[in-house]
Amino acid sequence: MSAEATNPEARPEARPELRRRGRTRLDLRRLGRAALLGPASRDRLPDAIGHVAEAHRAHHPDADLSVLRRAYLLAETSHRGQMRKSGEPYITHPLAVTLILAELGAETTTLTASLLHDTVEDTEVTLDQVREEFGDEVCFIVDGVTKVEKIDYGAAAEPETFRKMLVATGNDVRVMSIKLADRLHNMRTLGVMRPEKQARIAKVTRDVLIPLAERLGVQALKTELEDLVFAILHPEEYEHTRALIAAHAGERDPLPAIAESVRGVLRDSGIAAEVMVRPRHFVSVHRIALKRGELRGSDFGRILVLVGENADCYGVLGELHTCFTPVVSEFKDFIAAPKFNLYQSLHTAVATPEGYVAEVIVRTRQMHRVAEAGVVALGNPYATAAAPAAGEGAEGDEERVDPTRPGWLSRLLDWQQSAPDPDTFWNVLRSELAQDREITVFRADGGTLGLPAGATCVDAAYAQYGDAAHGCIGARVNGRLTSLSSPLSDGDTVQLLLAHDASSGPAADWLEHARTPAARIAISTWLEAHPDGAGPAAAVPRAPLSVIGARGGGGNAVVDLPDATVRLAGCCTPVPPDAVAGFVVRGGAVTVHRIHCTTVAQMRAVGRTSVAVHWRATADCRVTLLAESFGRPHLLADLTEAIAREGVEVVSATVEPPVEQRVRHTYTLQLPDATGLPALMRAMREVPGVYDVSRA
């Protein structure tokens, strides 16, 4: 945008090494001369956008270029007379941004908005004019990338501008595509800025724009932005890395020979594949050097294998692992389990007889396009496969998904509404974007929740229920009751337990377990509004309440030991028709256990005498049930009434003191008929406040 562009030759040491091989580079002086010549005749394309048209037609051969011509003419006339700080005509900036996007395969609407992205901010052109000339889509995108007025927002202008762009991105991801390309061109031309301003822009790029590029999958922009930021913020490490790369350039590179061996293996196996060597960018080399210490020749690049179909990827993997020695610890399957930014590939590493270890990436050509350009490669996310956007090819339409509402963006759009303070928004945004991995957990109703890695049950509660999660008192993860502080793993199933008391609130220590901004903001807001009490009052400890009946014994279990006392084990409470086993214990009594009870193995291990057991023909039985519930008045009375309605006798009952509004009841019951046990358990579960009933 109007961010102080500079002479691209001002930092010659940072230029050639950072450029991707084969990528077209703008000659700003040539473009400036072309722009100063004024608009072309009505029947031909202006020379200044010839390079854009060429790059666009390479991806979209049938694209209508007339709209680009009209957009360029409006941009050129409105910016005429404006100059960048480098002395170049200002029109060279929107042209450069548009070329970046055209090379990535952006569709025509994106390029049109890119040419116009600074007109409303820096010229007399209005949004109404853009809408009238180019339609609502282009107008929305241009408005999304237009900065808020600094005169209105003061120091909060930058945070509020990013808030505005992110909200717009939630409705159209192309807004952020243009912003990333805009920042890349400004970073390329940052050399004549004051050092302190260079550092400020580089830090914002590092903390916000690079994570956004990573999350949107635009690796081509992300890697170059990383290198440019690296050169500004870490000049000494950058110079050291540049020296390493320069020294490697004068040595024999083993990767081309390894790539040729891979080609031969795949050719012999009949797999059609394109094999190439991909040099690492500066930051990648720096990270490898920190990880491995001394670098070898094969560490300066990776081998990329492109195939036609998904199945071919696994065929290539099989051949590589058969003909070379695989490094098992380096294998990752991002095809079966794609990253949250749409990235798909197989990663592996193989060792050669000469002792080199080469990293290999295997993907289809469609995966490669998405890996490089991310959401830009998906074109218009709102065009269906049946009605592709103008100029878009059919390739990959059936795989297209709407990338504008992944989990991380939905979370961001939700919590930013609760962060009216610009400083809070800015700080929390950086913290959120620093989370570089995401997990998916399943809800009890079958839905899913996208959460950052390290998220806990507290985060899941607020992600699913919003402010209603203030009343969360526990959770079941994969069927087991657990605390709210428990961290979640990818693929977990979580059932959140909410109190029925509307006055319930979070405890202060929840903030220690919350990882998502939405949870932290909601908890902090509630605690600030309730300074006298953070959550429900702690229960006063008291002794368990017990109600003891008069009956005991072995129920209707019969053992093959005359005159022996029979006891049904309290650890597993067997009832007919459970398969059971009996063991003689001290005093000559026989205890009866279900055969799957853990005590059975212990009895056998210590040599206890086993006794055959069978059930009497009578159907009555004794069983112990655990009822877990939310605390409320009259709960014990309601449960006892429900048990009585089923014609069941209470032998004993124990009620534990409530903990975080949860109460646990233990009932030993005498049933007139064992077949009535399922109905009894259902009747107990239907008592308001009871969320689980199980056998002891």
Structure description:
With 696 residues, the chain is of the alpha+beta class. It is built from 26 helices and 22 strands. Helix 4 (92-104) runs antiparallel to helix 5 (108-115) and helix 10 packs across helix 11 (174-188). It starts with 27 loop residues before the first helix and ends with a strand. Mean pLDDT is 79; it is low at 1-29, 31-42, 384-404 and 534-552.
Task: Looking at this protein, list some descriptive labels.
alpha+beta; 6-stranded mixed sheet; 5-stranded mixed sheet; 26 helices; 22 strands; disordered N terminus
List the helices and strands and how they pair.
Layout: H1 28-36, H2 50-59, H3 66-79, H4 92-104, H5 108-115, H6 119-122, H7 127-134, H8 136-145, H9 150-153, H10 157-171, H11 174-188, H12 195-215, H13 219-233, H14 235-249, H15 255-269, E1 274-279, H16 282-292, E2 301-307, H17 310-323, E3 325-326, E4 332-333, E5 346-351, E6 357-364, H18 365-373, H19 407-416, H20 422-433, E7 438-443, E8 448-452, H21 457-465, E9 472-477, E10 480-482, E11 493-498, H22 510-513, H23 517-529, E12 545-548, E13 557-559, E14 566-568, E15 580-584, E16 590-594, H24 598-605, E17 610-611, E18 613-615, E19 621-630, H25 635-645, E20 649-655, E21 662-671, H26 677-685, E22 690-695
Parallel strand pairs: 2-6, 7-11, 14-16
Antiparallel strand pairs: 1-2, 3-5, 4-5, 5-6, 7-8, 9-10, 9-11, 12-20, 13-18, 15-16, 15-17, 19-21, 19-22, 20-21
Helix pairs in contact: 2-4, 3-5, 4-5, 4-11, 5-8, 7-8, 8-10, 8-11, 10-11, 10-19, 11-12, 11-13, 12-13, 13-14, 14-16, 15-17, 19-23
